[in-house]
Amino acid sequence: MKIAVIQFPGSNCDRDAYHAFFGVFNQPTRLFWHKRPSLAGAECVVLPGGFSYGDYLRCGAIARFSPIMNSIIEFANNGGPVLGICNGFQILCEAGLLPGALVRNEGMEFVCESAKLNVEDSMDYFNQGSLGETIDIPIAHGEGNYRIDDDGLADLEANNQVLFRYANNPNGSISNIAGIRNKEGNVFGMMPHPERAVEEIHPSRDGIGVIKAFLKSQMARQQKA
Amino acid sequence: MPTEAPAPNPDPTLNAPITPELVDKHGLTPDEYERIKKILGREPNLTELGIFSVMWSEHCSYKNSKKLLKQFPTQKFDEDSRNKVLVKAGEENAGVVDIGDGWAICFKIESHNHPSAVEPFEGAATGVGGILRDIFTMGARPALFTNSLRFGELTSADSRRIMRGVVHGISHYGNCVGIPNIGGDTYFDTCYEGNPLVNALCLGVLKHDQIKRGAASGVGNPVYYVGAATGRDGLGGASFASKELSEESAADRPAVQKGDPFMGKLLMEACLEMMGVDGLVVGIQDMGAAGLTCSTCETAARGDVGVEIELDLVPQRETGMNSYEIMLSESQERMLVIAKKGREEELEKIFEKWDLHAAKVGLVTEGKDMVVKQHGQVVVRIPAMDLTEEAPLNDPIATRPAYLDEIQAWDIETLPDLTDDGIYDALPQLLADPSIANKRWIHRQYDQMVMTNTVKHAGESDAAVVRLRCGGPDQDKYIAITNDCNSRYCWGDPYEGGKIAVAEAIRNLACTGARPLAMTNNLNFGNPNKPESFYMLKECVRGLAETCEFFDVPVVGGNVSLYNEKQDTKIDPTPVVSVVGIIDSRQYITSSTIKKGNEALILLGDVPKELGCSAFLRVVHQLKTGLPPRMDLENQAALMDFLQVQIQKGRIHAAHDIAEGGLLVGLCEMLFAGEETFGADINFEDLPIDRWDSLFFGESQGRILLAVDASRADHVVHDAERYDIHADIIGEANDEGILHVDAPNLEHPIEWDTSSLREIWENAIPSAMKI
């Protein structure tokens, strides 16, 4: 799949995502500056982590108005696969492509560590059969506390939209939620960083499974369509 | 010939006559003022006086320390060395060292002590931002941060406030710019109460042909100001850092800068993109201490040319700023760039992409003067080279403090040895000491993994390890880095303490599988005009320099922070040392924690008979006294050679340097291994034992604990004999989580539950911070 990794001013995991998708997964991957008017034929969009616009106002609130976001919203609404990691997840929530919001960690402090995640049976490839019951993926965020209203949460649960839950909640997220998808199954957001768990030198290599599940599920969807 | 006098300043307050009071207020002595007049051939105006005062402050001119610093080796003694110094200390913003295959690293440490004392969050944050700019200015992409931090005891509410602010500030800036913070060291002592030390290090990676210089050249080339606009913040920060802290220091708050990490990140990316364009940049320098003043005169002096700037063209975020304020502002996230004439548009386009200012403020000129204009009129004219090179060099008086003889004469026999119960109690007491306890409370707030190159971060090995991607997948290189300084040793014996700081750093690298490349240091000391303080600086530097020379580790840069005094208290001498090493193969990377039970434990080095200046004396006996341990460099050289060979043979599962707290603390640190907590069965049967306290908690130097496969332990010991190194198999690790220690003459074996010990070690700082 042709992957577009979007660079906002302040993105800082853009190269890491590039390295994972291109260097580890051998996918044709390009970095896209946020001022570009179009996605130029990309088949898959990755919004990387970082501090877009310095997290001023609210995380992701300004990036959501970047020129390229119009193309991304259109792309997602047409079923195009989108993965938002950390700040990318926050941007997807601000853009309305995923429900809920991410606010300051309960402990008020930035947290960086390897986090144990419980895998939910959400959809093809994103289930315990493919990924295992638990995986270790690094987190690094100050505002990863996932919030959603009761109705929204009930919807997420009813549609199996929760991908991962923290085994030891590090930030106060409701229902221990660490990652979700949209109802249609083409837009994904997660606070943990799978691109930081793909090589032998990393704390684990469980990110390989996550990225593979994302790529495979989207290829399968496109074949069906 | 006198330099032509500038025109009257448009701001009439700046035309006031220069009185002795004004000279004094600028921290200049009457002699220094005479020197200024001689250089100019006339009286300076007020703006010029301000410029001289910041450039001749200790922070910028090293006037009290420069002669001492000349003792440091600046390049490899061994001419055939694989790892030559490419840019030496003092030549540029940071030194550069070859790491092979056309690649190099660039690194430096810098202090932000005074600002952090007054405004912990902003002080620490801008410290990180400042060192970051020093590194990318050289053309290097930053790859890691480390810090050395010193605070007062956590029982003090003010120390807790300062630590919380400093750690937040470091994480705020470092996390946002997306560079991993992978280690460093933190100590707590009452001597740092109200005078914390915040030393920030950054290391970057670049190719040899990407090295950029901070020199102006080519008459007619345009001078650009890029980055954030100038405000009144940080006015005279360099001068502020060059005097003692006092009750009035809070009133100096305007001298503390405010950092904007988002702007810092954009500026870094834009500058790296610009420097990547062949031939576009002639020279580049960050506006750090002394801001526009320093960057303008230093680039001119290095290129032996003149530079002329017009202040009306400088982006300003406040109105009505006069020439004094603009020239002395230390607003953050600004750079000065000398571009190639005719290629202005290319440069401006890059900064437009990143939504940053790029203002053409002047030109490289003939002659040698730094000329500053405002509203078209000359307001400053100073020969640039004289400003940077003619700063007075002082020879302060050094007097050996009387207390040294007194404490060094302390006799260990005046202290009753520990009973069995005493041994049992002392270990958890030491593990609960914040200086020894686990530092996760701090490190968890730093992004240690961004860039996905972190191999070992703080606590996993004796030095942190990162991978550097140097081209293709098979061209990775592995760099190890450690910060060290036991300031208590330096207090007890500055010369020996200086030696120990360097030797310990090198030993930590050896335990990680690295061989040392080069060093940077941050000399944190008291007021150099006080002879006893200056003696400590002089002796520490002698110890550092001799040890660097001995191990052929050149010093490629650093920073001097003097005047760390507040009323009656001054800090212990703290020459923070950071040595960077290279690990020649990924297989050699060695951790400090054991992998599995039943590994044999080997102690390398002699059995200690000393306790002077140890953590044990401080924590258990509330004593700060005694002669610090001696450092035998020859012995350590053999130890390192031996260790390197054993690691390369693949025999070493874990290696850990024994430091603060001594043998049992070091052992516990090896047993607290990631998610597992091991135990060990230790028996000192074969060792000559004088005293229990010095055996278990003494801090004799040059001792390392190894974990090796039990079946190979005898081979390792046998090999050690050939290097004339004392090696003893002291026991085995176990999976039971019990640390069991036995020795002849002990009434009964002593047992600790290692999970409980670990809980104490891990909870000490978090619970102290919860108060």
From TrEMBL, chain A:
Q: Which GO terms describe its biological process?
A: 'de novo' IMP biosynthetic process
One molecular function GO term is:
glutaminase activity
* UniProt feature coiled coil, ranges: none
Keywords of the record? ATP-binding, Cytoplasm, Glutamine amidotransferase, Hydrolase, Ligase, Nucleotide-binding, Purine biosynthesis
Catalysed reaction(s)? N(2)-formyl-N(1)-(5-phospho-beta-D-ribosyl)glycinamide + L-glutamine + ATP + H2O = 2-formamido-N(1)-(5-O-phospho-beta-D-ribosyl)acetamidine + L-glutamate + ADP + phosphate + H(+); L-glutamine + H2O = L-glutamate + NH4(+)
The record's CDD domains line, in alphabetical order, gives: GATase1_FGAR_AT
Query: Chief subcellular site?
Result: cytoplasm
Compartments it resides in: Cytoplasm
Q: What residues make up the catalytic site?
A: 86, 193, 195
Q: What is its EC number?
A: 6.3.5.3, 3.5.1.2
Which Pfam families is this protein grouped with? Answer: GATase_5
User: Which biological pathway?
Assistant: Purine metabolism; IMP biosynthesis via de novo pathway; 5-amino-1-(5-phospho-D-ribosyl)imidazole from N(2)-formyl-N(1)-(5-phospho-D-ribosyl)glycinamide: step 1/2
PROSITE patterns according to UniProt: GATASE_TYPE_1
| Gene Ontology annotations for the cellular component aspect, listed alphabetically | cytoplasm
Matching entries from HAMAP family are given as: PurQ
What role does this protein play? Part of the phosphoribosylformylglycinamidine synthase complex involved in the purines biosynthetic pathway. Catalyzes the ATP-dependent conversion of formylglycinamide ribonucleotide (FGAR) and glutamine to yield formylglycinamidine ribonucleotide (FGAM) and glutamate. The FGAM synthase complex is composed of three subunits. PurQ produces an ammonia molecule by converting glutamine to glutamate. PurL transfers the ammonia molecule to FGAR to form FGAM in an ATP-dependent manner.
Q: Which PANTHER family has this protein been placed in? A: PHOSPHORIBOSYLFORMYLGLYCINAMIDINE SYNTHASE SUBUNIT PURQ
Q: Assembly and partners?
A: Part of the FGAM synthase complex composed of 1 PurL, 1 PurQ and 2 PurS subunits.
Q: Which NCBIfam families match?
A: FGAM_synth_I (TIGR01737), PRK03619.1 (NF002957)
Question: This chain belongs to which protein, by name?
Answer: Phosphoribosylformylglycinamidine synthase subunit PurQ
Per the UniProt entry, what species is this protein from, by scientific name?
Answer: Cerasicoccus arenae
Q: What is the lineage of its organism?
A: Bacteria, Pseudomonadati, Verrucomicrobiota, Opitutia, Puniceicoccales
Gene responsible for this protein: purQ
UniProtKB/TrEMBL annotation, chain B:
InterPro entries (UniProt xref): PRibForGlyAmidine_synth_PurL (IPR010074), PurL_linker (IPR041609), PurM-like_C_dom (IPR010918), PurM-like_C_sf (IPR036676), PurM-like_N (IPR016188), PurM-like_N_sf (IPR036921)
Q: Give the metabolic or biological pathway.
A: Purine metabolism; IMP biosynthesis via de novo pathway; 5-amino-1-(5-phospho-D-ribosyl)imidazole from N(2)-formyl-N(1)-(5-phospho-D-ribosyl)glycinamide: step 1/2
Tell me, which GO biological process terms does this entry list? 'de novo' IMP biosynthetic process
- In which residue ranges is the amino acid composition biased (Pro residues)? 1-11
Give the residues the record marks as binding Mg(2+) 2: 134, 286
The UniProt subunit note reads as follows:
Monomer. Part of the FGAM synthase complex composed of 1 PurL, 1 PurQ and 2 PurS subunits.
Name this polypeptide is given: Phosphoribosylformylglycinamidine synthase subunit PurL
Which source organism does the UniProt entry give?
Cerasicoccus arenae
**High-level lineage:** Bacteria, Pseudomonadati, Verrucomicrobiota, Opitutia, Puniceicoccales
What gene is it encoded by?
purL
